[in-house]
Design brief:
Blueprint: H1 14-24, H2 30-49
Length: 53
């Protein structure tokens, strides 16, 4: 079930986001594809602002 007010991706650690990518990888349903895109965007944003990766 999808939460009405989910946690923002920015509240997860980079390692948690990478784990989510690994868990979702290969799934082609629209929700998974959108989540993968959003996670990638968040990781890219972190890399640009903090050099976190």
């Amino acid at each position: 079930m999808i939460q009405e007010n989910p946690r923002p991706l920015s509240s997860f650690s980079s390692s948690d986001l990478i784990y989510l990518i690994e868990e979702i990888a290969g799934k082609t349903d629209p929700l998974s594809v959108e989540l993968l895109k959003n996670i990638k965007d968040e990781l890219d944003r972190r890399a640009q602002t903090k050099g976190d990766l």
